[in-house]
Amino acid sequence: MKTHYDVIIFGAGPAGTAAAYGLVGSKSVLVIENDLFGGTCPNRGCDPKKMLYSAVEAKDRVARMQESGLKDVPTIDWKQLMAFKRGYTSQIPSGTKKGLSGAGIDTYHGQAAFLDQHRIQLGDQTTVSADEVILATGRRPRLLDIPGKSFLKTSADFLDLDALPKHITFVGAGLVSMELANIANKAGSDVDIIHHNDQPLKAFPQPFVAQLVQDMIDDGITFHFNQNLKAVSKNETGYTLTTDLETLASDYVVEAVGRSANSDQLQLENCGVKTSSRGVLVDDHLRTNVSTIYAIGDVIDKAKPKLTPVASFEGRYVAELLMKKTTAPIQYPVIPQILFGTTEVGQVGVGYQEALSKPEKYHVSAFDLTHWYTYNRIKDDVAKAMVIRDANTKQIVGFDVLSSIGEHLLNAFSLVMNLKLSNEQIQDMIFAYPSVSSDLQYLV
Length: 444
Ligand SMILES: Cc1cc2nc3c(=O)[nH]c(=O)nc-3n(C[C@H](O)[C@H](O)[C@H](O)COP(=O)(O)OP(=O)(O)OC[C@H]3O[C@@H](n4cnc5c(N)ncnc54)[C@H](O)[C@@H]3O)c2cc1C
Ligand SMILES: NC(=O)c1ccc[n+]([C@@H]2O[C@H](COP(=O)([O-])OP(=O)(O)OC[C@H]3O[C@@H](n4cnc5c(N)ncnc54)[C@H](O)[C@@H]3O)[C@@H](O)[C@H]2O)c1
Hints:
The protein has 444 residues and is of the alpha/beta class. It has helices spanning 14-23, 40-44, 46-64, 78-89, 92-102, 155-158, 175-187, 206-218, 308-322, 352-357, 373-377, 406-418, 423-427, 440-443, and strands spanning 4-10, 29-33, 106-109, 112-114, 119-122, 127-135, 139-141, 167-171, 190-194, 222-224, 229-234, 239-243, 247-250, 252-255, 259-261, 275-276, 279-280, 293-295, 337-339, 344-349, 362-368, 384-390, 396-403.
């Protein structure tokens, strides 16, 4: 390790590693990680969740095809599924570190904190300095401050469970809970969800969310809306949960009520970087109030969705900025958001609610896809989509989808919107047929 670097990056998640790789060849870089190299997404977020979904989706597809060529719905062997997941996640920290080192990026594993704007003290008491510093330390689960809080588990615990509890309760009906509750239910647990209002997933089209909630209820999940968890206590067999309306029993309780920025262990007071209760404050160049310190990814106080591809996009942007390849403010492409599951809800661009409230500006076309060949073939009985156009230019500016395979159309529409493809340009293309993508020509 050197004693001085061009750039020091705190955090080796999708944001920090994207910035580090972007700087390779132009700048000397040190990446400091105090936990798992690779960060939340591949270790305890998106990727392990979708490994578990491999079995859940396969089971769901088989269940849909009963009396249409398949007999008997398989059960999920949680132990084997977890071993499959761990086969992937166990390689991530060492693989990420090796990848960084192989690219000529120095790494440090351990705690570190600012001494001043340019100097950082490492856990072993050595001091390193840098011309510029990037904060990419992400978020961690926000913990409820209630009696019995030590009994509560997080999404990271759930994603690494050795055995599946008989009864699981999730607190908060956000993205994390809804996705993990569906996995737990399909894998064989009884599942309850406690939510403090009756409008989960506000960023998504509400008619589609209502259908998702109904599907989850039909699958046996119980929602407890408009109530707050007040206390947890241990009983002989599990836990007693007390809300302001009722008492529930459960074997395992996962709290997923949002995530807090990891900005509190960096001793930012020593360098003067300002934060809000929602994260590190940055300008439109992702620069903090200290001109040599930047912040990227989930740790920022931002209105943009806190997602892996957004974090990497910001990492690549700041790398370009530091290499003086750009001086422009960050300009985000459209950002697709999706709730994964056996019913997926996805949204990109102008929201459905906003479009409906401004009929002079937007046209909304609603499609029931259930009887379309693509969805009929897999017996997807709730497939729907909405295409939102600018009323004047007719350009597609928004898209919403509800389907067990919604992610494919969502990405196709993101491409259409980013490239501003016209209806005519799409009709002039040839797609592999029959497929999700070939339906694009019927939807535009
Ligand atoms: C259960 C779950 C499922 C998710 N699913 C999806 C999904 O399907 N799709 C999607 O796009 N996004 C998903 N996300 C969100 C996604 O994981 C994050 O948006 C993404 O990881 C953010 O990247 P990041 O680099 O900003 O932060 P992180 O990935 O959190 O990385 C930050 C890194 O900084 C380290 N760090 C923290 N403090 C310090 C410190 N003081 N010093 C040094 N290092 C530090 C952390 O250990 C971590 O490794 C999910 C999140 C969760 C929790
Ligand atoms: N598919 C994906 O892209 C995906 C999946 C999972 C997570 N993520 C990312 O991770 C982030 C964190 O997810 P999350 O689900 O923890 O947060 P979230 O903000 O999406 O949802 C938390 C929910 O808990 C509710 N809540 C807050 N306090 C509560 C309380 N005391 N009792 C009951 N409910 C309460 C909130 O109203 C909110 O609906 C997401 O915002 C997203 O950026 C993305």
